[in-house]
Amino acid sequence: MVARIPRRTALLRTAFLLCLVFPEHGLVQAQGPDTARYNPVIRALLSRGMRDLQAENLLRSLVAAAPHRLSGSPGAAKAVLWGAAALVDQGCEHVRQETVMVPHWVRGSTESAVVVGRRPYPLAVCALGGSVGTPPAGITAGVVEVHSFDELRALGPAAKGKIVFFNRPMDPAKVNTFEAYGGAVDQRGRGAVEASRHGGVAALVRSVTTKLDRVPHTGAMGYQDTIPKIPAAAVSTLDADTLSAMLKRTPHLRVTLRMGCRILPDVPSANVMGEIVGSEKPNDVIVVSGHLDCWDEGQGAVDDGAGCAQAIEALRLLQAIGVHPKKTIRAVLFMNEENGDRGGKGYAVDARRLQEHHLGAIESDMGGFAPRGFSVDADSLATLRSYRWRPLFAQLQADEWSTGYSGTDITPLVRTGVPGFGLIVEGQSYFDYHHSANDVLSAVHPRELELGAIAEALLAYLLSEDE
Ligand SMILES: [Zn+2]
What we know:
binds zinc ion; 15 helices; eight-stranded mixed β-sheet; alpha/beta
């Protein structure tokens, strides 16, 4: 996932202007939702969902069947089979796979960084996703520490032949951790390019996390064709602090970095989907989604097994409470969100979409924590129409809606004009787990996970009943 910047002010201004120009829209807002009609549905979803807590069982089953699901890996292939079987088990119709080609990067078994010396100090590192490896003997070089690309530029020739160490932490004072992530992740994404541009031989990047520990956090990085590709690794936050302190005492220390990762040719994989067919307009579709792939360091329970379990559970719940949506509600388990977004892009342009009309796309990719609302990515009118449902979500404590980015996988659909809805959650701990060995099943609370599934089921149902 990437950073989400609320556009609340802009929305309010637009709402005000719309009310002036089209007073009927103000009327729509003033009327609010039909609570008498929808309250029984909300009560039924809560009652059934919170008793069964089935999202947790689905997540447990996924991480047991396919704990490592990086695109192109055997684990990702197992996850595709798991997704199809789980959708069939939950009574979904038209369960199928849509093939997409995905990048295939492998970590390899060699991965280490050591501060050279009489008493070598090993740093906890992991290769960044997409990085080239080092020669088998590794790269041994001096280290320069910087906190920004500007600082690197100002160093001039001092970075030449060095390992460039990017050590800007996520800003702890930002309450919105996704904004703090957005303020630091450039070092991971572009660090290798910028280091290489200035003559660096490798990039070492402080893990983009809020947690101080010895667990490195991986994530996607990229190269530019015109700039030599150099290896890039994440270093744990505690070791980043240690290395920084060592550099102050011993500016000429040297580090040996060894990585056996490599990039292989693309391979076929698939998005997996199943649906409740609409009773009146089966070709009108509402998507509820998460992504099946995850980084290889943990189990991807938070990112984004949770979103997949919730999508399937949302459809199960709607069937379990006996409602019959007028339009088709489709669970989509996307492939390759983490390092290519091929699933999201492939879904949006697949020829089968030409026969369909998408009314909305919902994604949960901020972890399975307690839901707080939705981030609506749509034109002003669609945004205002959806905002009138907000009071219904107060019963789930999920009525803190905002506008902006909704989810990586559904963004290609949103760009074609489909309203996007990203599930917003309580986000203080998300980046403790993100892309690391910390991301395991125990990080997800069954009740919080289920509430997210219920919020998604309710929104999908509202979209299906909207005239
Ligand atoms: Zn994700």
